[in-house]
Design brief:
The complex is a heterodimer. Chain A is an all-alpha fold. Chain A has 15 helices and no strands. By secondary structure, chain B is mostly helical. Classes of the chains: A mainly alpha, B mainly alpha. Chains A and B meet through helix 1, helix 4, helix 5, helix 6 and helix 8 of A and helix 1, helix 2, helix 4, helix 5 and helix 6 of B.
Chain lengths: 287, 317
């Protein structure tokens, strides 16, 4: 309670603040460098085309307008609404199938004893070593043979059996204490009920992390949709580079396109920002 | 769990196609694995074999018969008189150059940033979020953003340069600036990911190590050199290997920013393989390149795999 101690504590805090000042200044400069490109894109998208190249540069749009957005959303030969739907549908369908399949596959690999379990786990794990480039050409040729070029099937299915999700969930499931499962089993629960009532509630952070990362991975996927989808079947991030050739120097419209294509992931990030950064450590990637 | 009693009875009554699902059935685990095994076979195992098969045949998408070609398409990659040799190895060198330049920056830059935001400081969570944020953007968005900022004429950087009375720089169309553009956009895009992995590892170093060092009067550098750096070595190995692999797969940044130019100097090997396959329809040639490139990458993946295997050996986490 002594004022002397309080005074010393305050003085200590002040001294600490002062010692932190150089580090804080460095962080502020870095943060400005990281934010500037995003700010500049948004600012450019809100200017009339003639102002985008104005000298000196207008940090704040002098004549703010939504004209670029209107133009981009109403382009006759580039259906940005359809591309947005394609991206949303593909990313959602992919996430549900990928997380679901990973869940059902990781469960026996982590919680059951059967012949060949470890051999199979190692075998599918080995496939993670296969560089994606070796799959690209043959998978594309399969899409031709399946008649899947320019379909949602091509955008969704080839990535679903990826093994990373199984690996991550399996690593999480093995840490769940066996007593909980035994107690449920004594109560007469079958394996599906144990999955539903014991494993699932305890694995929520891992499942949500996996879902978030697979949604973003699918939304941002570039190489694969670039080659298997065209025209109306394009995904949004690929689509916006398609009209870059038409608007080669119309940067106001190009930036409006990039803002639209980033909005869903940016909104998700702002709301679940802690989760993104901390969730990464849950992926088992940390070491 | 309260309804489990009744379900047991139902489970007992069900027979027929659901029998393998009954508890204690030796087939049960395999049924869980089956759906993935089917998709895994179709979309991963089969394409690997198919890719190698295509690479040793002369594949013509329109022909009904695909004649055996042996190692012809692989030999071309080692015969300096062929176009494939020239382009494959040139783009391979381009890619290796990018790996060599980007990996040290992405590893040491990320470690420095992680240490900056590791200890408590005002706005720490905000800074972490800002540095990670570009990671969530699509590569096409990143590419268009930087192509605009580094535009030869009206780009923000050139406008600022000419405002300061300095000459403009052709970031997009002249070397070495084209590489600078690709490097800067890559750093901005991905460094936050490595930073977060390093942050998690820094948090795992017991604080009493540092307290003991403080008692000994160790300097900040000594603490880094003898505590932080050695404690982080498994993380560094992981970060280096994953970054090397990611950088080898360079595609979107040059594809969007430079188009592989000027005169193909920023064309990556992945860009060339896709061009050979999807523009020239030389599937056999492209498959041979992909297989060779894949084997080279495999050398690095084995390292990654060993670190993962150690993780599994200890039962995860």
């Amino acid at each position: 309670m002594g004022t002397e101690r309080e005074g010393r504590a305050r003085g200590g805090r002040l001294a600490r603040r002062l010692r932190q000042a150089p580090r804080l200044a460095l962080l502020v400069i870095l943060a400005l460098i990281f934010l500037a490109p995003v700010y500049w894109a948004v600012s450019t998208s809100l200017k009339p085309e003639s102002d985008t190249v104005a000298m000196p540069p207008q940090w704040i749009p002098a004549h703010p307008t939504l004209e670029n957005y209107r133009a981009v959303l109403n382009m006759p030969d580039a259906n940005i609404w359809r591309w947005t739907f394609n991206s949303l549908f593909t990313a959602t369908a992919y996430t549900v199938s990928y997380v679901g399949l990973s869940l059902f596959t990781a469960y026996p690999l982590a919680r059951m004893h059967f012949k060949g379990r470890d051999a199979w786990f190692w075998f599918i794990l080995f496939s993670m070593m296969i560089p994606g480039v070796m799959l690209l050409v043959p998978q594309y040729m399969m899409m031709i043979r399946f008649n899947w070029i320019d379909t949602y099937n091509a955008l969704i299915w080839p990535g679903v059996p990826a093994v990373f999700g199984i690996f991550m969930l399996r690593q999480f499931f093995v840490t769940i204490p066996r007593d909980l499962e035994d107690a449920a089993r004594i109560d007469g629960a079958n394996s599906l009920q144990i999955l539903r009532h014991v494993i699932l509630p305890l694995s929520q952070p891992a499942l949500v992390t996996l879902a978030v990362f697979s949604f973003m991975g699918s939304w941002n996927n570039y190489v694969w949709p670039l080659f298997v989808a065209h025209g109306n079947m394009l995904t949004l991030p690929v689509g916006i580079t398609m009209f870059s050739s038409r608007y080669i120097t119309a940067y106001g419209k190009l930036m409006a396109g990039t803002v639209i294509a980033s909005l869903p992931v940016l909104v998700a990030f702002v709301f679940a920002q802690r989760f993104f950064v901390e969730g990464l450590t849950l992926t088992g990637l940390k070491e | 769990m309260n309804r489990s009693g009744s379900t047991r009875h139902e489970g007992g009554r069900r027979r027929g196609i659901l029998a393998p699902f009954s508890e204690g059935s030796p087939l049960l685990p395999y049924l869980y694995l089956l759906p993935h095994a089917v998709l895994f076979t179709v979309f991963i195992l089969y394409p690997i074999g198919f890719g190698i098969y295509v690479s040793v045949h002369r594949w013509d998408i329109l022909a009904s018969h695909q004649p055996f070609a042996g190692l012809e398409f692989y030999k071309r990659l080692f015969d300096p008189s062929t176009l494939q040799f020239q382009f494959f190895w040139r783009t391979m060198l381009n890619t290796a150059l990018f790996v060599g330049l980007s990996v040290p920056l992405l590893v040491f830059g990320a470690l420095s940033m992680a240490m900056l935001v590791n200890r408590p400081i005002f706005g720490r969570g905000f800074f972490r979020a800002v540095f990670f944020m570009p990671n969530i953007l699509a590569v096409s968005v990143v590419g268009l953003l930087w192509r605009w900022i580094l535009d030869n004429q009206a780009g923000l950087v050139n406008v600022i340069l000419s405002d300061a009375g300095l000459p403009k720089v052709d970031f997009i169309t002249q070397q070495p600036w084209a590489w600078v553009s690709i490097l800067v956009s890559t750093l901005w895009w991905t460094i936050g990911f490595n930073m977060v992995i390093y942050l998690a590892a820094l948090q795992g170093i017991p604080s009493n190590y540092y307290e003991a060092a403080d008692l000994e009067g160790a300097s900040g550098w000594a603490k880094f050199r003898y505590i932080t750096w050695p404690m982080l070595s498994p993380t560094t190995l992981f970060v280096v290997v994953t970054t090397v692999l990611a950088s080898f797969q360079l595609f979107g940044q040059p594809y969007v920013i430079t188009g592989g130019g000027p005169s193909r100097t920023t064309e990556s090997v992945l860009m060339y393989i896709t061009e050979e396959a999807f523009t020239n329809y030389q599937f056999s040639s492209a498959s041979a390149m992909a297989t060779l490139f894949g084997l080279i990458m495999l050398l690095f993946t084995i390292f990654q795999f060993r670190t993962m295997a150690r993780d599994i050996g200890t039962g995860g986490k």
